[in-house]
Amino acid sequence: MTPHTEIFNDLLKLAVDSGVSDVVIKSNKPGYVRIAGKLKSVDMDPITGEEVKAFVEEHVPRVFRQAWEDNNQVDFAYAAEDVGRFRVNAFHQRGTPSIVFRHIKSRVPEFEELSLNGEPLLNLAKAKDGILLICGATGSGKSSTMAAMLNWINRHLDRHIVTIEDPIEYTFIDDKSVFQQREIGTDVPSFDLAIKAVLRQNPDIILIGEMRDRETFETAISAAETGHLVFSTMHAATVAQSLTRLFEFFPPEQLAQARRQIAGSLRGFICQKLIPTIEGEGRVPANEILAADATVKNLILEGKNDKIQGLLDAGTDSQSYSFNRDIMRLIKEGKISKADGIRYSPNPQALDMNLKGIFFN
């Protein structure tokens, strides 16, 4: 092991042992870690720019080396011996290299330990086809929620599941289902090649790590229309924002066609954010869930997306509900404080009224 690799591995081991989610490296600074959402510096000597550069050049996969040299930024996976796996983003800032590591937990989580409201998520996971999108900001636990759903499928249903990930996060052990997990750069040179091949690989379920562009979404639509269930993630904070993002993939002259395609293929949205626990030692997920039933599909077809938030706020369907409804559940279960619930709510005034028993449907 080279000296610079040893420096990084020691820091990553300290991070994992401390329950850290992210490690931030800036040239000529000590390392920083993010734990329970808070960024803290590590008591260590500064890591030089030469050490950062040497680490990247030693460990970046061959297929990505040219991208690092040409673009001064690259994503790849790194496995530290006896420590764990990490998603790595290396980049330049002000002419010097930096790295951000995200710890990839090896054990797939269960619904119960994530404090998720399991029933509506399981109902979505049982779908035979369609597109299911898990949405939220970076670090909101999207991958953990999606992994918990796939793990339930693995234990209860016989499915052939093909994943396209950049990099692989959770690794699954085949139970009733069979997993084929393809990592960009290791198993296939590019995301585009993996997407083009996936429908020829006889999947029942396809996991696409991120819904990143129109071509990806159109592949997901084709898969949904031919009887496949597609899981993917998207960077959007709420159901309303998620729907807007989908329509942004299409030019204005194709919006009518887009409404038909989205209404026909969408299975649902799961939007997520993490809120500090009442003990202050961790975070729990709050969800906004939209199950795309006949009413929702008709609203999308008619271009009345603005009406969908009203359905979520009304909460008349136990399978679809707003963030405020789930935040209320977490407050009543004693998992988060009222103050944090209101602070993280997208509509704090309405939540305050709801907690007093006042609802406007």
TrEMBL record:
Domain (Bacterial type II secretion system protein E): give its ranges. Answer: 199-213
What InterPro entries is this protein classified in? Answer: AAA+_ATPase, P-loop_NTPase, PilT/PilU, T2SS/T4SS_dom, T4SS_GSP_E_ATPase
The family database entries (Pfam families) matched by this protein are listed as:
T2SSE
SUPFAM superfamilies in alphabetical order: P-loop containing nucleoside triphosphate hydrolases (SSF52540)
**What CDD domains does the annotation carry?**
PilT
Q: Which family does the record assign?
A: Belongs to the GSP E family.
Q: What protein does this entry describe?
A: PilT/PilU family type 4a pilus ATPase
